[in-house]
Amino acid sequence: MASEDVVGKSSAGESAVTTIVNLAEEAKLAREGVKAPGHAILSVCKSLVAGGVAGGVSRTAVAPLERLKFLLQVQNAHNVQYNGTIQGLKYIWRTEGVRGLFKGNGTNCARIVPNSAVKFFSYEKASSGILWLYRQQTGNEDAQLTPVLRLGAGACAGIIAMSATYPMDMVRGRITVQNEQSVYQYRGMFHALSTVYKQEGFRALYKGWLPSVIGVVPYVGLNFAVYESLKDWLIKSRPFGLVEDTDLTVWTRLACGGAAGTVGQTVAYPLDVIRRRMQMGGWKDASSIITGQGRSQVEYSGMVDAFRKTVRNEGFGALYKGLVPNSVKVVPSIAIAFVTYEVVKDVLGVEMRISD
């Protein structure tokens, strides 16, 4: 038996080594431009992995700010518990501890990892297809993507990724908002999905989908367009002696990603607030943060109704509730996501980059 165990361990070790060698060979072939069998499928998988890792890392890094943004967006104007970024984070720490700062992050990552993977991959495919059509129409085989075309590719990627993972985003919002005073507790993403489906129906899983679609066009579209255009400008104008993409440092890419995130979230933020409020609609066991003491929760018949009631009851400024923590969050989040994506693809040996 002992000898069999040794043989088994040896075989397993040899298998692991073989796998590593094969991956290394695939990466080498990719860098050299040689198309090995299954290269296309492997490249797709690596691209999806890179996008997923980028989303998970970037979102976890800013999880406390993400939760605070949610709470500020949906809290009732007559039952204010969170008055700002510093006060809000301190209040969560004092009342719920460290776990409170990261509440909902597991569910968030369960959503953002596939969302980010699909989003980055969709952008690559959409930009390639748009560039091909653009070259066919102009008759210029050397034509490159313009900022407007990048915006279109980013918008397509955002809509595809958001629609594919929207139910998870919806229940993630509820899990993030609930606290110890909530009447009903969701135990996790799958429990929340099944509970919402049973109590409120299938359509409830897509509450707020329309403002999400409208908002994702400028948000994701501008993120990709600004990031890629800034990089392109830095390379072509060579303001700092830059010659090619590999000369862009991590800090330079972080700066480009931060600028992209700032522009995108500022334009789309009001739609994000309305989306969150619509997602909370119909939640009869919502916490007092949302309903207020002795008050019923506001119901919305649609996106326009949500805009109208929010502005009428709380003023125009309510459309920007949580903007400060979101701004503090989104700059490093988007920057980290773009840089992580490119770094992971470099490590995995995928030659195709979003810049291409």
TrEMBL record:
Gene Ontology terms describing biological process: organic anion transport; organophosphate ester transport; transmembrane transport
Membrane topology annotation: Multi-pass membrane protein
Gene3D superfamilies: Mitochondrial carrier domain
Record-level GO cellular component terms: mitochondrial inner membrane
Solcar repeats by residue range: 42-129, 145-233, 248-347
Main location: mitochondrion
Record keywords, A-Z: Membrane, Mitochondrion, Mitochondrion inner membrane, Repeat, Transmembrane, Transmembrane helix, Transport
Source domain of life: Eukaryota
Cellular compartment(s): Mitochondrion inner membrane
Name of a matching Pfam family: Mito_carr
Keyword Transmembrane helix set for record: yes
Family: Belongs to the mitochondrial carrier (TC 2.A.29) family.
Protein name, as recorded: Mitochondrial adenine nucleotide transporter ADNT1
Organism: Iris pallida (Sweet iris)
